[in-house]
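MODEL INPUT / OUTPUT PAIR
PAIR INDEX: 1
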Amino acid sequence: MAKKYKVIQWATGVVGSAALGGILRHPKLELVGLKVYSDDKNGLDAGDIAGTDATGVIATQDVDAIVAMEADCVLYCPLPWSTTEICRLLESGKHVVTPCPYWFPFIQNRKAAEAIEASCRKGGVNFHASGCNPGGIAERFPLTFSGWCNRIDRITMTECGDCRTYSSKGVMRNLMNLGKTPEEASTNPIKSALARSWNEPIDMIAEGLGSEVIRYEAHHDFILANQPIETAVGIIEEGTIALNHYRHIGITREGTEIVQEQIWYVDDIEQTRLQRKMDIPRQSGWRIKIEGDVNINIDIDFPSELTQDERVAQGISTTAFHIVNAVPIVCEAPEAGLKTYLDLPMITGCMGTHSAPR
């Protein structure tokens, strides 16, 4: 019988809740603990939070109890995250998989990388940051398709998102700057942290291509609302940011440009609620564009018949399910340490426990 890995879910926001359901359905995982933040969820059965039958696993706000718990892995999904918490979990002998940084922190966040590596060695475990974007589209997928090319001039990853039904206030208001004034956005302390975060996948792509980044650029543009816009996190007022456009660029030693682009907005593709229009390549979804001796566009999207609410929900699920599916691979990876996609075999979905003899 295949081994079942004992897993703790840490945080049950939009991604954490989806991950919780994913753990309960995964044939190789067993939920043994649940860390929550709100008083309303404290003491509930995990099934009540996930919308399933009772599990016998009771949610707790007690960090010490979680750290002391016997488990193989923690799915760590809070916002904001804490490197101190991550290191404490690792030192307690638990692998950690997270959608938070650090995907490839060795250049942008060297101090955090060294602390995580040391904690991994102390606990004899692994750390891996995964997800959708970053955590997949930003680095894993471009590197996969780079195998079709011999000379690469530019790799561009573009995320377009109609975010009106996205329910995380922290992400919408603080990370995406939606609803902020231009002055508030320009002084938002997340700006430098965001640049480091997007430069991590840029560095990983460069490493995967056998190169290194010698220059970084960052460009930030936005468009204001021409009327109040209703969203899942409240009204975006007229005269505040309703479309946020980030571009982070790394130029390698050989001249390849690696571009991470995000276009987050709270309108439909016609942009009638905005003070001006932007040429948006798609309403919601992702495009990976590789330019060189082979030119490729890879579009990743959800079916057009889905409602916007369903598209947002499935977008969140891609992050959650990717980290859930990574758990067995991270637990089995040899030599304790910080593991990136460059260190691990392919992460796939898991429908069963069969393994053919080889």
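PAIR INDEX: 2
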Amino acid sequence: MPGPDLTGSSITVVPANQASWADLQAVFGDRGEAARCRCQWFKHPGRAWYAVPVEQRAADLRADTHCGDPTAPSTTGLVASLDGEPAGWCAVEPRTAYPRLRGQRVAWPGRDEDPDDAGAWAVTCFVTRAGYRRRGVSRALAAAAVDFARDRGARALEGYPMVTEGGAEVTWGELFVGSRSVFTAAGFTEVSRPTTRRVVMRIDF
């Protein structure tokens, strides 16, 4: 699944099980919040995430993605490469796979949406490898996530970016959920604002 080329470089995106675990490890790195979280924040509600060791988070990510097994019946995300080098990741799977999304401040205020609707999928996290940022990787991943979810029977796909303001302090969590502009470019539209800074972006198939 090719992504947009904003720099003259070639970006390709594949389901995570078609990439190697080494490629995904390269994207997450071994330092910083991405390496510590391993895309497990939305998998554990409340404070449960803090009780899960980093090693277990990595093991859970590997089990969910089935990296290196192109015959696996399922996988949970996408891996982007730029000029053949692993460059980015996004998590995308049925919304019901993310217990933290059931929190009232994340997705539901002002909406008449069933949290248990397995036909609605979610993009919860983007990681771009150090040295590959601001080169269109997240946009390529968001665009590919639309096809990925639709091809697997999703009825709709959502994202939950934070709106950042000039001069405001930005936390790591606000960066990893993606930006509103990335979702807009992939065809999503804003459907609600659970908080003053949280936006729910959605595309219906």
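PAIR 2 NOTE: The longest strand covers residues 85-94.
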